[in-house]
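Re: weekly structure request thread

Next one in the queue (511 aa):
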Amino acid sequence: MATAAVRPTSSRARDTSFFGHPRGLSTLFFTEMWERFSYYGMRALLILFMTAPLATGGLGFDTAKAGAIYGTYVALAYLTSLPGGWIADRFLGQRRSTLYGGVVIMLGHISLAIPGMVTFYLGLLLVVIGTGLLKPNVSTMVGELYDRDDERRDAGFSIFYMGINLGAFTAPLLCGWLAQSAEFRGILASFGLSPASSWHWGFAMAAVGMFFGIVQYLAGWKYLGEAGMYPVKPDSPEAHARQRRWLAIGLAIVGVVLALLAAGAATGRVGAQGVANGLGVFLLLTTVGFFVWLFTVGTWTRDERKRLLVVLVLFLAASVFWSVFEQAGSTLNLFADRDTRTVVLGYDFPPSWFQSLNSLFLIMLAPVFAWIWIKLGKRDPSSPTKFTFGLIFVAAGFAILVFAAKQAEQGVLVSPLWLTATYLLHTIGELCLSPVGLSAMTKLAPARIAGLTMGVWFLATSVGNYLGGRMGGLYESFSLPGLFGAVALFALGAALVLALLIRPIRRMLER
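Done, posted below.
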């Protein structure tokens, strides 16, 4: 069995230099904060930039094409975390994977900051690759800062996740102001620069954020000790050679696919929707194939098979949840841009600023929900129950937008309070489902496949992001009340099905 290189741990418990936690936590806190700043700053602009008219510096895509590109991008950003984690475990170690990922992400945002179709698609590709290398591995290193029995471990992850929310909160405010505000366009004009280039300044701000993250990561490298320094040590030279062959085969396949896509795009035979449809088929086959393999190959006990059934149910529920929740960057972003009044107290703010609300509400409400779950004690709801509440809240968020959409159909710009209420409800839903999701799957999965549970969660998130992105492509194809109502019913239907399964699941796990 492969083993990780031995890492010294004797000094971990004595390191309390960062608010009672290891000094290395501050390094990873700010690394992830700036990485999420770059990701959410760009995400807040992406579909708006693609659908903005050419005259204002956008790409002039229709929403169907823009939704296909957006859905493909966000799905791959999470899906590549699976090979990214494997490469770190087997070859690079988490420490170097995080550094290389950050550099590639920065180059991707720089590419997006340069006008041109080639630089646009190249930038998206680089951000996807870099995110796959960085995202899973920086979180792994947080765990390696602590001994297994260190009581500070859970609190350390809570501090780390606060960094994610700080980055996601500030990014749309800064990147959005540069990309969309009349003030900054006026500044560009005063210097003789084209106001239409403001979108690319927003993308450049995302690159600057990742640059800050890389600089402080290197400055704090020495505080990480041995965390993430070593890949898993293979059992034998033969095993290492086999891993290298798999890596070479994987890279060759990716290279061939990218070459074929580039050739198809150049000749006009492959379009954005064709690529997105292909990814959808791949995600479907991967999901079905994985669970068929899981249930047919393993020699599971009766109890283990029951638990795997629950994992499947929670996987489907999570996929539905994220498909609704992650429309923040697609349909809800378009609704903010086209149908929502963005003037408050006389100030006209960029529509992308709505993207900061989720993180703001998370920062405000996360301590409240943590207190509620502790206060409930033994009455703390089960994971399927929390999943059900999560689905109900995201359904409610879209249900109230049906009324706002009916006003918008009359040519009225609706109050920003509608979207504010939706984001509040969606955040409550996220707090019900997201913190317990991976934990529940880890507890339910048999010990011998515990390592796969992270992959299951990332796959559910990828499927949800893909569906949520593709929903943006329907914005101009259906009436808004009908579209928002259908999304609400979709989530509510999933919640009702899951609610009916709560008791059977409880009885099944008790036997």
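The first strand starts at residue 3 and ends at 4. The chain has two domains: 18-233, 278-511.
Next request, please.
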